[in-house]
Design a protein that fits this description.
Layout: E1 23-25, E2 33-34, E3 39-40, E4 45-52, E5 57-58, E6 63-73, E7 78-79, E8 84-86, E9 92-95, E10 100-101, E11 106-108, E12 111-112, E13 117-118, E14 123-124, E15 129-130, E16 135-136, E17 141-142, E18 147-148, E19 152-156, E20 159-164, H1 167-190, H2 216-219, H3 221-224
Parallel strand pairs: 1-4, 2-4, 3-5, 4-6, 5-7, 6-8, 6-9, 7-10, 8-11, 9-12, 10-13, 11-14, 12-15, 13-16, 14-17, 15-18, 16-19
Antiparallel strand pairs: 19-20
Length: about 230
């Protein structure tokens, strides 16, 4: 008997993956909801009240636990490898449209605004609000109730607001998010299990994408001397 959580893309997209897109679990009769145009890696875990919007990317080993409250990724958002999203009973964790959550970040009962960036290994506690197009720097700890104004950079442990972002910095971030939206499409079409090859690494085919991007230290002066 096919499990109730088994998910396949529509027949019109038969060239794409037909296996379950993640380890998806029901709890108390509540089942995660994944848009057909999202990609959730098979090694991610989704539990209960989780809503994944169109064009989202959820990376391997991400854990989205909707067993106490709702976890939402709005259209075009991404949450990368090893991230955790959870919340206390009666609350929610929301990543708004085009939100971008870097590897290893922890989101707990917070709201990440539209087009905002959460740097790698950052921790956002309950009732944190990150404004539209704002950045939280890598390895930051954002205390409960803290608010990052729209289009500002906050970083540190505990995080403090440093300054306004430039248009160039926000454009850099927007491009990075488009890279992940493109990755979601690539994964839906071509990602599949494979056996490793044996041979000459100099003749090994390289990954190729038309997407571009630079590491944050190239763009943000605060990181250049670290």
């Amino acid at each position: 008997m096919t499990p109730s959580w088994k998910y396949s893309l529509p027949p019109t997209e038969s060239h794409e993956l037909e296996e379950p897109v993640a380890r998806v679990y029901e709890i108390d009769g509540v089942v995660p909801l994944i848009h057909p145009n999202a990609f959730v890696h098979p090694d991610a875990v989704l539990i209960g009240d989780v809503v994944i919007g169109a064009g989202c990317y959820v990376g391997p080993l991400a854990s989205l636990r909707g067993d106490f409250g709702r976890i939402v990724l709005e259209e075009g958002a991404n949450i990368q490898d090893g991230c955790v999203a959870h919340c206390f009973p009666g609350s929610s964790t929301v990543v708004e449209q085009d939100g971008h959550v870097g590897h290893g970040a922890v989101l707990h009962g917070c709201r990440v605004g539209r087009g905002a960036l959460i740097g790698m290994n950052s921790v956002l506690m309950d009732h944190v609000v990150v404004g539209e197009r704002a950045f939280v720097g890598a390895n930051s700890f954002v205390k409960s109730g803290f608010e990052v104004p729209a289009a500002h950079l906050a970083t540190g442990s505990p995080a403090k607001v440093l300054r306004e972002l430039t248009e160039d910095e926000m454009a850099w971030k927007a491009n990075g998010t488009r890279v992940y939206q493109d990755l979601a499409r690539r994964c839906r079409k071509t990602l599949k299990p494979a056996e490793p090859l044996v041979g000459d690494p100099t003749e090994h085919r390289r990954a190729v994408t038309t997407a571009g991007g630079e590491p944050v230290h190239v763009t943000l002066p605060e990181y250049r001397n670290q």
